[in-house]
């Protein structure tokens, strides 16, 4: 391809999962993994008319004359590594115009492919809708939609697909995943004698790579509902029994965890939960995070899930949305549970959240930047450093600085005290005594405003009730009794 030439090509990016952590713990091993990865890519390209362009660190860039060739090559790479417990790669594919300039491939299509690659789980292939359209009718190629994604430095949402594994590989994949998880657990225990800074950096890299999920997977069905303003909201259902709808606050991701309380409730209930707008699999890069917009999202999810009457659980910033919905739809809600939430934001709390918003906009570096410090000191003051790492890493996966900051800014404007006075269903309000994100008095105000509401105070300062929290079992028992009278 001559300098200045422009042509249509399928672009493939690959990288080594957990490479940073591997190099950090054993540089020679990390370099061996990178070399094996590059050699495998080059060997595979020869079979599928691919052209190797460049290697940057553990990433490779290749191009193909067709999407079919790129996808077949990617599948061959993952098939070759299907039994390899040491080396795992992620692959992203897009098709579009490319241009060579000063010896390098440039263009919007290169950026799109590069941004799609990190969306792939270990051992997975992700591709843009444009690439998928070229291969969707080819034998042996199956995919599931991940929805529209807002990619950095890309001026439009891109629909992304993840290739599904062939049925005969699923058992081996589960076994390999379990072996990896066990190996990681053993490794984490073994490095207990090493200085904490290394443990923290290694765990952060593993969490970002997807080798350690923030929450172990469980069976759930993910679908999409569309809000009146066209925003797509990803929601999931799990379990069976009387329905419970969970309205979460920020930093959620249906595929990566943080769907708090789902496991505890799904044994006795059909649980419906979703990623708020701007979070997880739902649409992001938005400007409207108003109460009306978020309530409309909840209404869209409930309509899509075909629910007639259900218990409603408002968690943290999801509380005002749950209150607004319960007041507007008294025939739908049978019970209302609120945890760590608020009906309005007073001046003192508004100042605190304004400072948090500024930190989110300017300090998204979770490894050592100001957001991690604020998060640990305000959200999780009593949590251990590894749990803080897990929580902050999830926040980076779940949202962007702009979406998270707007979520906070517009949430400061909520005031649902008038709606709270209209609620007539049994209501339980739970709050941590030392919560510094949402002070105790805010929930006390909710309980005194909703007629007949029961108010329960749990000890502790963490805003989130995470695994290992001394009050977790008490909270689970309390909510279980309330939701299943």
Structural key phrases:
485 residues, 17 helices, eight-stranded mixed beta sheet, 16 strands, alpha/beta, Alpha-Beta Plaits, Rossmann fold
What can you see in these coordinates?
The structure is a single chain. With 485 residues, this protein is of the alpha/beta class. The chain has two domains: 6-169, Alpha-Beta Plaits, CATH 3.30.70.1230; 221-483, Alpha/Beta hydrolase fold, catalytic domain (Rossmann fold, 3-Layer(aba) Sandwich), CATH 3.40.50. It has 17 helices and 16 strands. Strands 1, 2, 3, 4, 5, 6, 7 and 8 form an eight-stranded mixed sheet that branches. It has an eight-stranded mixed sheet with strand order 9-10-12-11-13-14-15-16, with helices on both faces. The longest helix is centred in the middle third of the chain and has 24 residues, at 167-190. It is elongated and about 70 Å long. The N and C termini lie far apart (71 Å). The model is unreliable at 166-199 and 206-213 (pLDDT under 50).
Structure summary:
The protein has 485 residues and is of the alpha/beta class. The protein has helices spanning 19-25, 27-47, 67-80, 108-116, 129-135, 167-190, 196-209, 262-266, 291-304, 318-328, 347-362, 370-379, 385-398, 401-411, 417-421, 440-449, 472-483, and strands spanning 6-16, 51-56, 59-64, 89-101, 104-106, 125-128, 143-149, 158-163, 221-226, 232-238, 243-247, 270-274, 310-315, 333-339, 427-432, 454-458. It is built from 17 helices and 16 strands.
């Amino acid at each position: 391809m001559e300098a200045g030439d422009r042509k249509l090509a399928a672009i493939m990016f690959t990288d080594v999962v957990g490479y940073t952590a591997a190099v950090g713990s054993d540089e020679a091993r990390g370099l061996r993994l990178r070399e094996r990865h590059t050699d495998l890519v080059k060997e595979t390209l020869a079979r599928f008319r691919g052209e190797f362009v460049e290697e940057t660190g553990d990433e490779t860039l290749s191009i193909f004359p067709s999407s079919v060739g790129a996808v077949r090559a990617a599948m061959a790479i993952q098939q070759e590594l299907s039994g390899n417990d040491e080396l795992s790669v992620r692959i992203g594919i897009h098709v579009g115009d490319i241009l060579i300039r000063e010896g390098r491939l440039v263009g919007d299509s290169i950026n799109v492919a590069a941004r799609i690659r990190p969306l792939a789980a270990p051992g997975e292939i992700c591709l843009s809708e444009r690439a998928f359209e070229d291969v969707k009718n080819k034998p042996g190629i199956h995919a599931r939609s991940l929805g529209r994604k807002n990619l950095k430095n890309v001026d439009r949402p891109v629909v992304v697909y993840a290739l599904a594994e062939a049925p005969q590989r699923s058992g081996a994949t589960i076994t390999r995943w379990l072996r990896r998880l066990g190996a990681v657990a053993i490794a984490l225990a073994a490095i207990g004698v090493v200085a904490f800074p290394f443990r923290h950096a290694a765990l952060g890299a593993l969490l970002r790579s997807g080798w350690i999920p923030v929450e172990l997977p469980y069976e759930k069905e993910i679908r999409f509902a569309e809000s009146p303003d066209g925003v797509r909201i990803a929601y999931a259902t799990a379990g069976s029994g009387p329905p419970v709808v969970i309205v979460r606050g920020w930093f959620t991701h249906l595929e990566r965890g943080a769907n708090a309380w789902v496991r505890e409730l799904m044994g006795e209930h059909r649980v419906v939960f979703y990623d708020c707008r701007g979070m997880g699999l739902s649409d992001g890069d938005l400007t409207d995070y108003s109460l009306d917009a978020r309530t409309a999202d909840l209404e869209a999810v409930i309509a899509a899930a075909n629910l007639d009457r259900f218990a409603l659980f408002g968690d943290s910033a999801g509380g005002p949305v749950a209150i607004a919905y319960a007041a507007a739809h008294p025939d739908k809600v049978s019970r209302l549970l609120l945890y760590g939430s608020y009906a309005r934001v007073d001046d003192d709390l508004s100042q605190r959240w304004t400072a948090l918003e500024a930190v989110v906009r300017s300090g998204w570096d979770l490894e050592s930047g100001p957001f991690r410090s604020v998060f640990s000191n305000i959200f999780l003051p009593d949590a251990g450093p590894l749990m803080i790492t897990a929580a902050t890493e999830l926040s980076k996966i779940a949202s962007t600085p702009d979406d998270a900051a707007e979520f906070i800014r517009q949430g400061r404007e909520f005031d649902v005290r008038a709606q709270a006075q209209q609620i007539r269903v049994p209501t339980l309000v739970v709050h941590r005594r030392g919560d510094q994100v949402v002070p105790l008095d805010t929930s006390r105000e909710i309980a005194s405003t909703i007629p007949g509401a029961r108010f329960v105070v749990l000890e502790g300062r963490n805003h989130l009730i995470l695994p290992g929290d001394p009050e977790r079992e008490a909270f689970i028992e309390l909510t279980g009794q309330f939701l299943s009278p």
